[in-house]
Request: fold
Amino acid sequence: MTVLDSRALNRATLARQLLLDRAGVPVLDAVAHLCGLQAQEPQEPFVGLWSRLRAFDPAELSGLLVRRSVVRTHLMRRTVHLVTADDALAWRGRHDAMLRQRVLGNYRRELGGTDLDELAEAGRAVMADGEPRSMTGLARALAGRWPEPGPRALGEMLVAALVPMAQLPPRGLWRTRAAVRNVPLASWLGREIDPPAPGGTDLVGQALVRRYLTAFGPAASADLRAWCGLAGLPAAVAAIREELVAFRDERGRELLDLPGAPRPDPGTPAPVRFLPAFDNTILGYHDRGRIIDDTHRGLSVAGERVVLVDGRVAATWTVAAGTVAVTPLRRLPRADRADVAEEGRELALFLSENDSDRVTVAESPD
Reply:
């Protein structure tokens, strides 16, 4: 079985994530290809798409949100994702059990003994009036009937798990700050969530395996689970196993992939790329060593924005007063510093709508 070293996996990941060459595809197609973008920080998907698409216009993404072609909703790993409307409706039912369990994992003591099906029914009844509500507002509407859990636990269980919700614009629009207002996903999109497949089959799980490998492969089953948080996927993998090809990594783990998917030569040059907070290029794997060193692994879950140099996390970045500030995590040769500064200037222009091209690159650590 062919062994793929970390550099081969890195280049495959960059290619699948549209980070090796910026893609000339429509924004909606990019969001679908990437299986959505993690989006609890509302402005971060704009940076993620700018780094991946040629001539990206943020107004296009805002327009897709307003037209309800994409939607902000709790999905993979119980985090807010920006996904296409079609994917939200197709995938949401498969995520129900995971979403419940993840909220219970945080609030088991508060929610112990609560009939969650009854709570879900009551939540849907409150939301049936079509009025957008915050998490706290929905919890307060039901607090008289369920006073014990408290508003935080009650609200998170309702909004993140029990009642599939969409977060309404203007939250998530370009250069806009707005509070979260939720409405039921099906009413916002004008279509019902897809029901479970008949006969105990897991057609959604099988589709998720294919879509994940398209955007993240080659990958191990543990990587797939880390990306979505779902249980029961080994059976979905087994059901489509004959469609897949297998490799091994340097640790001996089996990696699965689609036969015709891009696996570039490990020597392919990788340009500097600026990634947003919580980018799935890093969070979409259990083994993140293909793109980030173990010593810096915590950056990805802490919400740090990072810079890729030669395909690997080499710096963090922030922006304030129109200036992109880069802090290297290791020594950057002069040519790499120049490339980082040039890409940083382009990012500053994008974020400021051509008002500033200021960038600073701090001295490298010893």
Observations:
- The chain has a mean pLDDT of 96.
